[in-house]
Write a structure and sequence with these properties.
single chain, mainly alpha
Length: 297
């Protein structure tokens, strides 16, 4: 078969827009990676990439990783680390949410109902956080993580959610009042502990709103972006921000989100839920260990 003739326009203009966009992606990834290494160093850039992968794969965890990295690896104080972590997680979550939207893994009704109310709670919680010491916020953060992980792992063994297309019973629509109450509670606690809230949002969507796990992951990314923006506004003006380090960290984390989002479709709902629960346990124990001196006072 004779291949189609190449037109003068093809030779002068090049491949179609979609093909050119795909070709640009590796250049963008390399550029963002270079920015991160230049501002954070190789180790900091590698840790930032892990933050992005955790967000893309689990729908949460970026804040859990970003805050300790800013504090223990990059040497920032807890409160500025909390504020910068919210920006990192908000930007990477928004980027990941766009990818999940194309895969059909976002429930707009749940995202708007949960997210708008959570934003109000997050802003208020962030303003109240000025009354707490940074160590207190981290300890509260670790305690909530452990509670969320227990519910995730227990529900995994008792009430597994049927995979889409498996022929299992259809999930009932989430009551708007229940989702609104969850959003207000999560938002308030998110502002107090200064994280995006993915480790709370995903269990809430799965266990109470009965959203399938993979759809909950995508929906949570959009909610995290909204929640993080409101939380950062609550901290803005209260703490000093290192914009160079924050933007460099964000640039690398965005590239990791791409890889994590790609892997979501390769993992079963059961495995994803169990992995998320175990992830929460590990991060909570790490934070408690790093702040163990408080218990000896």
């Amino acid at each position: 078969m004779t291949p189609p003739a190449t037109t003068v326009r093809d030779r002068l203009v090049g491949p179609p827009r979609a093909a050119r966009a795909v070709a640009i992606v590796p250049l963008g990834v390399a550029l963002m990676g270079g920015i991160g290494i230049a501002t954070l160093g190789a180790v900091g850039a590698a840790l930032a990439a892990i933050v992005g992968v955790s967000l893309g794969l689990l729908g949460g965890g970026g804040s859990i990783l970003a805050v300790p990295i800013f504090v223990y690896a990059l040497g920032f104080e807890p409160k500025p680390s909390i504020a910068m972590g919210l920006v990192v997680v908000g930007a990477t979550s928004l980027f990941g949410a766009l990818r999940h939207w194309r895969m059909g893994n976002i429930d707009p009704r749940i995202a708007l109902t949960f997210g708008v109310i959570a934003m109000a709670g997050s802003y208020g919680g962030a303003r109240l956080a000025a009354l707490l010491a940074g160590t207190t916020q981290l300890l509260l953060f670790a305690a909530v993580m452990l509670i969320a992980s227990v519910f995730m792992l227990r529900d995994q063994s008792r009430q597994p959610t049927p995979a889409v297309g498996s022929g299992g019973p259809r999930e009932r629509p989430a009551p708007l009042g229940l989702v609104a109450a969850q959003g207000a509670a999560v938002g308030l606690l998110t502002g107090l502990v200064g994280v995006g809230g993915g480790f709370l949002i995903v269990p809430a969507l799965v266990l109470l709103a009965r959203v399938p796990m993979k759809r909950a992951v995508g929906t949570s990314l959009l909610i995290i972006a909204m929640n993080s923006a409101a939380g950062f506004l609550g901290y803005f003006g209260q703490v000093a921000i290192d914009w160079k380090a924050m933007l460099g960290f964000t640039a690398v984390a965005v590239t990791g989100t791409v890889a994590g989002s790609r892997l979501v479709g390769l993992v079963s709902q059961r495995q994803l839920r169990r992995g998320f629960g175990l992830f929460l346990v590990g991060m909570a124990l790490f934070i408690l260990y790093e702040n163990r001196q408080v218990f000896g006072q």
